[in-house]
Amino acid sequence: MEQEFLFEKPTLSILQKTILESLESDGLSTQNEDSFNISIDQAIEISDTNRSVLGIPLSIPVQIHIGSSGTLNMEEFGFILSFKETRASSPIHFSKEGDFFHINGKRYLGSSDQIKVLRTLTNHQKVNNHKFEENLMALGSIKRYGAKLIESGSLVFDSYLKNEQVEVAEKLRLDFRENPDGSINVVPSIDHNADEGFQKAYDIYPKVKDVYNSQDGDRRVRVVIPEESKPSLNSLKSEFKRINGEKKDSVLKNPSNYFDESTFDLDHYSKRVYELGLYEPKYYPFIKPFSTNWVSGVTVEEASGKRSEILIEDEGEYKALHSGIQIAEAKGEDKVEFKGSLLPVDDAISLRDSYIAIQENRVDKSGIRDSNGRKVLIIHENVEDLEFSIDSLIEIPHVFIPPKRLKSKFSLLPHQVEGVAWLQSLCKSNSGALLGDDMGLGKTLQILSFIDWSFEYQQEIGISKPNLIVAPVTLLENWENEFKLFFEPHLNFIRYYGKEIKEIDLFALGNKDVLLTTYETLRSKQLLLGRINWFSAILDEAQRIKTPGTMVTNAAKALNAEFKIAMTGTPVENSWMDLWCLSDFVAPGLLGSARIFNSKYNNALKEEEADIKALGDDIRSQLGIYLKRRVKSQILKDLPSKEQVFFPREMPDVQKSKYLKELEFYQNNRGSLNQLLSTISKLRMISDHPYLDLAPEDLNSFSTLQLINSSAKMIETSQILESIKAKNEKVILFSPFEKVQNILSRMVIDLFGIPVSIINGQTATVESKGKVSRQKLIDKFQSVSGFNVIIMSPIAAGYGLNVTGANHVIHFTRHWNPAKENQATDRVYRIGQKKSVHIYYPMATIQGKETFDQKLDKLLTMKIQLSDASLYPSDAAEVKFSDFEELLA
C-alpha cells in the first residue's frame, strides 16, 4: 500500500506539471530534482478535478453511513460503517486498504473530511472495550470532522447516533463573575449554546467530572472533558472561587499570568465603550446596503422544449442547493437536483455563488450574532442618534517633519510629503484622518513614514505606545515587505493572527512595535485588543467597516487609540453610507447620526433630478480637513502613458450560432426581469466562450486549438499574447470565471510552453503550512526575465497587490462596475511603473448586430464619465441589467 504518490518528471504532460507546480505552491506537493511527491495527507486535500488529471483515486462518491452496536454507555459499544447510494438503498460491498476503500470495484481515497471521519471510526474499532467518555469523544469528533458532510447529506447516522449531541470541550474560555460581597468566581465556559447548562452542572460537583449533561433548547448535550483539561479545571475549583483582595486585583489586572485565555473588565477600554455584553445584530430600515443587480437565475429546458427560470428565493433554498452541489461533487455527478429540476453543476454553483454575493452585501457576515453568546464591546453607535462625538477642528497648518530612517536612495513625492505633514498635524491635535487617495499613489509609504516619525514624537511627549495595523490578511505580508524596502530597520513588525497569537504579550508592547492583525482577529479578539492603549490604530482597506452596527465595525470603533487612520482607495465603494461609517471611526459626530445623514443625502439620490455632484461636494466640504483624497490624473503627471486598445473580432460559427439561439429564445419567450437577467448573463458567458456550459470533463475533451478557434476573444487574445511575447514583456489576464481561467491557462501552456499561475479566491492569502501566498506568486511571476503571463480574478486582484513588473493588461471578461475594473488595472498602473501601459479589450462581434461586448463597452464608458463626479457612489456607477433591454429587443 503506497504512502505517497510519485510523479516522475519525464512522464508528465505540461498540464500535469503545471498542476503539480500549483499544488506545490499550495503546500500539496513536494518537488524533487526528477519528480514530484504527494503524500496521502496532501492528496486528500486535492480536488477531484486535479486528482483525475494526475491519476490519484477520487474521493468517496457515495453516502457514508454510520450505525451503532449497543449504546454509548456500554463497554462493547461499536460503530458500524457502511456505504450506500442513497439513504434507502442497500449497503454496497466494500473493502479497506489503509486509507483506501474499494467500492463497486473502484478504488477511492476520501476527501480530507471523509478521511478524518473514517480514521476516527477506525481508531475506535481497534480497541474492544471502551469507557463511556471514550465513546462520546469518538462520536463528538466524528460529528465535528463531518459537519460539512452531514450538512450535504453525504454522512448519515442511524437514529440513535443522530439524536446524541456531544460537545468535546477541547477549548475552554474563562468567565469572571462578581459576587454580592465584591469577590469574584472564575468559571469555565465552552463555545456552544449549551454553555449555561454546562456552567451550572460544573458548579454542582466538588471535583471535575468526565461528562456533564447540559441542554441546547430542548435537546440534551453531553459535554466531555478531555483528560488533559482536568488539572486546570480542578485548579479553578480549588483556587479561584470567591477570590478577593490583592489576588482578585492581580487576576483582573493580569489574567494572562494565571490562565491561558481570559476576558477582562472595562477599565482600560475607550470612552466610546459603555458596556461589555452580548452582541445583537441591528438592522436599521433606513440603511440599505448596496446590492448588485447581477444575480442570475438558471434557465432549465424540459423535454417538451419549455423553458423556465429557477432562482434562490430564501435561505432554505440556498442551503438545499448548497447541499445538492456538495453531494454531486462527492459522487462525481454532473447534475444537481434543485426545485424539481436537474441543473448542470456549473450552473448550480454560479446560482449559489451569486446568491452568496448578494447576501454578503446585504448583511456583513461579521454582523451575525455569535451563537456562542460570547461578550463583546458595546459602543455608542451614533446610528439612530448622535451619542458620542469629538471636538472638530478647523484648518490647521501642516508642517512636514521628514521620516529619519527613510533609506537615502528613496524620497517622498510632493503629494506624499503633503500627506505625511497632514497626518502629523492631525495627530498632534488628537483627532483622526481618512486617507482616501486613489490606488497607486503610495498610501502605504505615507502611513509608514508617519509611523517612523511617531517613534521620536512619542519620546518627545514622554509616552511609549504601540501602533496597530488592521488589514485583509492578503496585505499584511506587503506591509512588512514595504517597511523593509523603504526604511532602515528599527521597528518590530509583529504578526498577530493565526497560530502566532498565543506567542504575543500585548501588554509588553511599546513605541517600537507595530502589531499586524486581520479584521477577523480584531472581531474575535476585540476584548483584548480593545484593552490596549494604542498610539495609532490604522485600518487598511477600511471599507471593510463600511456597514454600521456590524460586529467588526463596532470592534474597530471601540479601539482605544490616540490617533485613528482609515485608508482606502475607494472611500465610497457602494453608497455614501460607507463614507459616513468611515468618518464615524476617525472623527465621530462629524457627519451627525447615520439617520440624519441618510435622510439628507442617500434619500436625495432617489429623486430624478438629484444633482449627484453637488451632493457629493457638500459631503466633501463637511469632512473638511479630515479627508485627504487625490487621484492619479491630478497628481502623477510623470506616470508612463496608458493606452487602451479594443480588438473586435467576428464570432466563429459555433459561437455565433449559440449566441443567436439564446437571443432568439429570449425574444420569443420574454417574460420576467429575472429571465432578462439570466439571458444577459448567458450572453456574457457565450461571448467569452461558447463551451462554458459544458462539464469539466467534456470541456477537457477538446484540444487547445479547438478551444481557441471556437471563441473570437480567445483568437484575439492568443494574437495579443504573441505580440507581447515579441516585446519580451509581461501581461496580466483578467477573468472572474474559473473555466475561462483554466482555458486561458491551457492556451498559455500549449502555445508558449510556460507554466502560468492563477490568482483567484482559492489562492492562499498568506504563507502557511507550506502554502505560497498571493504575494509570493506575484513575486515569482515578476522575477522571471522577459515574457511571462499571470491570470487573475479582478476581485482577488482588488486589494493592494502591486504588479508593476507587468505593463500589459488583458480584460478578457469585463466587470459590470467600472470602479472594480479600474482597481484591477491599477495593479499595473501605479507608482513604480516604468514602462508604457497597454490595456487590451478583446470583443466578440457579429456583423450588422450590436453584441453584448459592444453594448457593455458603451455602458461602461458612459458610467466612467459619470463616476468622475466628486465621491460618486458605486451603486449609481454600476451597469444595470435594465441598460441591456435595447440589446435584446
UniProtKB/TrEMBL annotation:
Gene Ontology MF annotations: ATP binding; helicase activity; hydrolase activity
Domain (Helicase ATP-binding): residue spans on this chain: 424-589
UniProt-listed InterPro entries: Helicase_ATP-bd, Helicase_C-like, P-loop_NTPase, SNF2-like_sf, SNF2/RAD54-like_C, SNF2_N, SNF2_RAD54_helicase_repair
The organism's place on the tree of life at top rank: Bacteria
Organism from which the protein derives: Algoriphagus halophilus
Domain Helicase C-terminal: residue ranges: 716-880
Key words, A-Z: ATP-binding, Helicase, Hydrolase, Nucleotide-binding
Name by which UniProt lists this protein: Superfamily II DNA or RNA helicase, SNF2 family
Lineage of the species this protein comes from: Bacteria, Pseudomonadati, Bacteroidota, Cytophagia, Cytophagales
